């Protein structure tokens, strides 16, 4: 089974995931923009199990639809690496950039398009949602 490792910039915090992604997407919501310091978050979902190495600092926030998310980032370099949904241990969302792989598969969907910067261009053929479809 294929495994991938994502890490923070300094390498102190790492997560190893197994198998293919459950899906890859981008989120343009204002919370993701502020959280990442970019114009969107690029995320890849992986099924359990996963292995974490290093120490993480956590930030917890409640999403628009009431779900609570626990974001993990490196206390040394500040890189955000992954997050989970409270009460749902079936999958983890990993920041695509933390894989440091320019050949990572493109996103399959784009959510919160109502907040997308007009100059952001996305691959053809992906699903577009004005808000979160869940």
UniProtKB/TrEMBL annotation:
<dbReference type="GO" id="GO:0016846">
    <property type="term" value="F:carbon-sulfur lyase activity"/>
</dbReference>
<keyword id="KW-0456">Lyase</keyword>
<keyword id="KW-0479">Metal-binding</keyword>
<keyword id="KW-0862">Zinc</keyword>
<dbReference type="Pfam" id="PF04828">
    <property type="entry name" value="GFA"/>
</dbReference>
<protein>
    <submittedName>
        <fullName>Aldehyde-activating protein</fullName>
    </submittedName>
</protein>
<feature type="domain" description="CENP-V/GFA">
    <location>
        <begin position="4"/>
        <end position="113"/>
    </location>
</feature>
<dbReference type="InterPro" id="IPR006913">
    <property type="entry name" value="CENP-V/GFA"/>
</dbReference>
<dbReference type="InterPro" id="IPR011057">
    <property type="entry name" value="Mss4-like_sf"/>
</dbReference>
<comment type="similarity">
    <text>Belongs to the Gfa family.</text>
</comment>
<dbReference type="GO" id="GO:0046872">
    <property type="term" value="F:metal ion binding"/>
</dbReference>
